[in-house]
Amino acid sequence: MKSFRKFILATIAAMVLFPSCDDYLDVVPDNVATIDYAFRDRVGAEKYLFTCYTYLPAFGSPRSDPAIMGGDDIWSQEDANYYFYMGGDFRAFHIKQGRQNTDNPLLDFWNGANDGKALFRAIRDCNVFLENIDKVGPDLPTTERSRWIAEVKFLKAYYHYYLLRMYGPIPLIKENLPISAGTDEVRVYREPFDDCVDYIVQLINGAIPDLPLTILDISSEMGRITQPIALCIKAELLVMAASDLFNGNGDYADMVDNRGVHLFKAEKDPLKWARAAVACKNAIDTCALAGINQLYEFTDTRYSALSDTTKRIMSCRHVVTDRWNKEIIWGDTRNNAGDGSYSWFSMPYFATNDAYGTPILSPTLRMAELFYSNRGVPIEEDPQYDYPNRYKTEAAPTEHRYYVQPGFETAKLHLNREPRFYANLGFDGGVWFGNGSTAATAGSRITNPDGTTSWVLRMKKGEDSGNKIGLRYSITGYYPKKASHFETARNSSGQAATAVRTSWPIFRLADLYLLYAEALNESQGPTNADVYKYIDFVRERAGLEGVVDSWTKYSRLSSRPADKDEMRKIIRQERMIELAFEGKRFWDIRRWKIAADLLNQPIKGWSTLTTTPATTADYYQVLTIETPRFTNKEYLWPIKDSDLRSNGNLIQNPEW
Fold this sequence. Notes:
The chain is built from 24 helices and 15 strands. The chain has 656 residues and is mainly alpha-helical.
């Protein structure tokens, strides 16, 4: 009878907490012998450690990372059956089309459904590890044991953080409940947002002392957690907590549970920005101690003959795909080569016989307009930039030969832009270095004065890189260039490719510098010189003058950098440019609470569906592809209806 009672209680616990995933609830399983077996020696414990790592989200995956296909930066033509066949349904694409729901949420990280990871199960497994690691005998050295504990503490913190960023206030799973837990104990509550932040910070702080400063065994341990990683995620968490979505947001003032507990504070707390600034500086200092103190530069000696212009483009482009380069603080190698990867969906067809890959991810015209002019200021502010006529065409001048084929008739929008424009975007007439451009295959190419050969994209309907074989083309007329390693190339028949495996930058140094500049500006204003200093580090790599000099010399609005509110806008644009197509914009525009302003605007591109052969006049017509729908409720993910029915202590997010 006693055993049966335990079984009933465990079953009730499974149904009440997270009912749709009862195999991984926050209840100790009844297979204690199995757990004991897993922790009887170092080998078993190490396997459990790696199990805790396996729940990390699929960073950089168009299918499973909501930040790749969920925003306004990348679009695609839609054919659900085709996508499923080629690499999986793009759930985030459907979310931005207004298809998110409470019955069966897309990218459900609460339960682990519809390409979401089961993060509460991940937390449960982290707790199992932490509660049992001391059972391992003397074959696990004390220093190694301490490091493993620290890694799992961080992972537990990170899984809480990922859920917090997505859902807002969440239950804090500090420890697994015993098998004897009653129904009241397992009917968990969502805890106040600030309490969640403090708990995650506490976990990270507890982990940091026992984490390594750097990874010494590069061949087998890259990607495991270090002190710089932990401090950077702490900084990112605190910047998020200080931002408008979560700091004094009146839209959430009425989020009160049945205890009468308010899940958000109604008043904005400016001290949160000061706390975030300190965390960012601590992360910067620790990165420096670890030797991560310089932004990436392309210095591959095999390509020493490259022009300085191409080297600068490659420095801005290849920072994303150069495996474990010196700027990457935390990287991920799981999802970034081969079928279904970001690269697979991004690299255009260059030659007539190309047919391998599925180049369908399409940066929007909005992103093309985002980048600065070649003088380092917004194109609408630069008096020398012909902004009113940017959609009209012009023959590319000879001095643009490393950017656009000389004499090619292209949009003025594509001329006189900063190097990051050309590092990020492939476009009609644009020069694309690498990806097999030195091979003797038929296709559009150009021989550069430095002796190298580059592709020239032909994007009009019927042309090699355009709409010539059904669905596999860019619907906007742009490709995200930095998503594919420049040495990934198709073979001479165009029917296969050698894909270079990369390390997706979950977090890199430029990201940290810009977070610090943002936190300083919000807490102290631009009177603190470091606000400019850390932005200027990023701009220098792109070949641009500093913020103050650029705006003073080249902008119609020369006083903007001296004003806190205007400097905020400059910092935000700098982040959107530097980190374009890296999955940062999606989260940034939410925490800044400007997603509703951006995600209800029409998605536009060039006329890629004109008749064949398309003329220049046919192609360079701005068309509206679709108008997405975003409402305030979509700042936060919905909790599944069945979870709410099973646990009356959980409350739904606003408006769902």
